[in-house]
Design goal:
The protein has about 650 residues and is of the alpha/beta class. The protein is about 35% helix and about 15% strand. The protein has 21 helices and 20 strands. The strands form four sheets. Strands 2-13-12-11-8-7-4-6 form an eight-stranded mixed sheet, with helices on both faces. The protein has a seven-stranded mixed sheet with strand order 14-15-16-17-18-19-20. The protein is globular. It starts with a strand and ends in a 12-residue tail after the last helix.
């Protein structure tokens, strides 16, 4: 990790408290009036509110970089790209609010002249019929959903689909969300789009940016990890195909960037140049625009990097626009089977943004993410409204993606479960909270709500040493009565030699070692009548061939005893900002940029595993052993292939 050596210009307009500059505010207002007048004239209209949408809209393509090159043996469920949907939630909301410019000055809408071509959300009919597969159908044109590229694997057919999408849509902006193992493919995706459309602006965001790029206010410097996009480009290890990068709480920063791009783009909508966008960002900040949260927005302009650190007020996670507002629910999770055997249409929901534990291997820890945020005011009712919204969109099940459900707070869990149980047994609208009534209107909505099931994640500690046995049984009963039909628990390892290094084994009791703690927790869940899936992580500190064998056998016994319905083996992959990466001396060795890294067996059998970035505690022979021994001992309970769904 080091500070950037190329020329870096830090713009403090969104970081340090300061009064708006009156001259900048007048300049911004005059610019907006001039641009609206120009649009009105181009369209042959008398007033700005008469300007047709096709005169204002510019196309945008958004993508989630995959982490796989082959479906063979991969551990994955066909979930929706929620990190992308969350990142887009604020800017999509801004675009939907900006479909019409008002007759007078137009400054009451987020996008005051040009606007991303997201003029409407998917129709209810489209939501109820959406499936996995290619988008950009006629029914999806003009919706955020219609401009998403979400490949499951990165192979030649995916490359050709991206080329075809680029030619067909001709986006002015290409937005890419990526985690570290997908970064090399994100770079190739950017290169392919630039080859087709050299003037298209490429924006990178996602967990890899969050972990590898930050701002140090003490020295007013940009701090870059070895694996960061900017440093890889600077050192010639990656092609200069990325124009903007967003890290941190980027919902608001991306919205800001898209507004600056819209204002910097010529009214003929041919292109916006990085230099002009940087100028617009500076003008917006000087004029007094302020954003919530903490984030970092960087721009590459030739040999110069412009850094815009953003430090704003706190916000309630529930106040963010719904991530599904612009997108149909496409997930089908087989752990939620319908009466006819089909997997239920499953929405993803998050009520907290990070894990309260500090495990040294995990990139979801609040220490890595930058703090724990959650649904704040009236959290149970706010979460219930979001559930009802998703039910109205066609959700038949909901999986809560929180690292630990409601951060493990029993009171919050009980309050939400009671609210959901009451809603599922409601006899009419008058029995629902007022904020939920607008979502549950037709017979289909009511049928899905009453039959709704959900799943969430828990820990062994949460169900054993952190709470009394009676309290645990009461909480599990509340989950079941509210419709919970699936729990997921990270076992990680069954070896005390390994788990002594893991923070989620937080309360260590002499007569309840980790192995017994896991079995006790799973037994209590089974007594509540809720099926359990589990994950196991090989390669943690203290791992040896003996501890691997111990874990494989002990998890096999859990399978034999019917305590888990699914067990997913995983290999520790180093992430840029985790403590174990630093302690293992891998921080300046992570190659997440080279395009020619061969992803071969046995690595392809494990999600996110690539040569050179997996645990130094494992040899390739160990990884082969893990693959073969778990397949043999765990049998069909091992989750080792993506199911096919219609």
């Amino acid at each position: 990790m080091r500070t950037a050596t190329r020329e870096t210009v830090v713009h403090d307009v969104f970081h340090r408290p300061q009064k708006p500059d009156a001259t900048a505010a007048r300049e911004l207002s005059a610019l907006r009036r001039s641009r609206r007048a120009g649009l009105t004239e181009r369209a042959g209209c008398e007033r700005p509110d008469q300007v047709p949408w096709n005169t204002r809209a510019f196309p945008v393509l958004a993508a989630l970089a995959p982490v796989m090159t082959s479906l063979e043996g991969e551990i994955t469920y066909p979930g929706d790209p929620m990190c992308l949907y969350h990142a887009l939630s604020v800017v999509v909301d801004s675009a939907l609010k900006s479909v019409r410019i008002t007759a007078d000055d137009g400054e009451d809408v987020p996008f005051t002249d040009l606007c991303p071509d997201w003029r409407c959300p998917p129709s209810k009919e489209r939501r109820l019929t959406a499936r996995h597969g290619p988008r950009l159908t006629d029914a999806e044109a003009g919706t955020p959903d219609g401009a998403v590229f979400d490949p499951r694997v990165w192979d030649e057919p995916a490359r050709e689909r991206l080329r075809e999408l680029s030619r067909r849509l001709r986006p002015k902006v290409f937005l890419v969300s990526t985690v570290s193992p997908g970064h090399r493919y994100a770079l190739e995706m950017a290169r392919l789009v630039k080859e087709e459309l050299p003037d298209c602006l490429v924006v990178f965001g996602g967990r890899h940016m969050d972990e590898s790029m930050r701002y140090s206010p003490a020295g007013r410097t940009l701090v870059l990890q070895y694996s960061s996009t900017l440093r890889a480009i600077e050192e010639g290890r990656a092609e200069p195909v990325v124009d903007f990068l967003v890290s941190g709480e980027g919902y608001f920063a991306l919205d800001l960037l898209m507004k600056a791009i819209a204002l910097a783009m010529d009214l003929d909508r041919t292109r916006a140049q990085v230099h002009d966008v940087v100028g617009m960002l500076s003008l917006l900040g000087a004029a007094g625009l302020r954003l919530p949260g903490n984030s970092l927005l960087c721009a590459r302009d030739g040999a110069t990097v412009h850094a815009f650190p953003i430090k704003g007020g706190k916000y309630d996670l529930a106040e963010l626009p719904s991530p599904y507002q612009g997108f149909a629910i496409r997930s089908r999770f087989p752990v939620f089977p319908l009466p006819d055997g089909r997997p239920a249409r499953t929405a993803h929901l998050t009520v907290t943004n990070a894990c309260p534990y500090h495990c040294d291997f995990c990139s979801e820890s609040a220490l890595v993410v930058g703090g724990l945020k959650r649904f704040g005011a009236a959290p149970a009712e706010a979460a219930l409204e979001r559930v009802c919204e998703y039910v109205s969109y066609g959700a038949e099940a909901v999986f809560f993606d929180d690292s630990i459900f409601w951060s493990g707070t029993f009171r919050a869990i009980r309050e939400f479960c009671e609210a959901l149980r009451a809603a599922r047994t409601a006899t009419g609208p008058e029995d629902l909270p007022e904020r939920c009534r607008r979502w549950i209107t037709g017979d289909g909505d009511w049928q899905r709500l009453r039959a709704l099931r959900f799943g969430c994640q828990v820990t062994a500690d949460l169900l054993t040493t952190l709470h009394g046995e009676d309290e645990v049984h009461q909480m599990l009963a509340a989950l079941r009565e509210a419709g919970c039909t699936y729990l997921y628990m990270g076992i990680e390892s069954m070896s005390s030699q390994v788990m002594d290094h893991v923070h989620k084994n937080i309360r260590r009791v002499a007569d309840l070692p980790w192995k017994k703690k896991v079995r006790t927790a799973l037994t209590r869940i089974r007594e509540a009548g809720i099926p359990v899936g589990s994950s196991v992580l090989f390669g943690l500190e203290g791992e040896t061939r003996e501890t691997i064998q111990e874990t494989v056998e002990e998890v096999g016994r859990l399978v034999d005893d019917g305590l888990v319905m699914l067990a997913s083996p995983n290999i520790l992959t180093y992430h840029p900002a985790t403590r174990i990466t630093r302690e293992h001396g891998m921080q300046d060795r992570l190659d997440y940029h080279s395009p020619d890294v061969e992803n071969r067996p046995p690595y392809i059998y494990f999600e996110e595993a690539f040569p050179g970035v997996v645990s130094r505690r494992l040899s390739e022979d160990d990884i082969w052993f893990i693959h073969e021994s778990t397949a043999k001992r765990w049998g069909t309970i091992r989750n080792s292939a993506e199911p096919e769904f219609p």
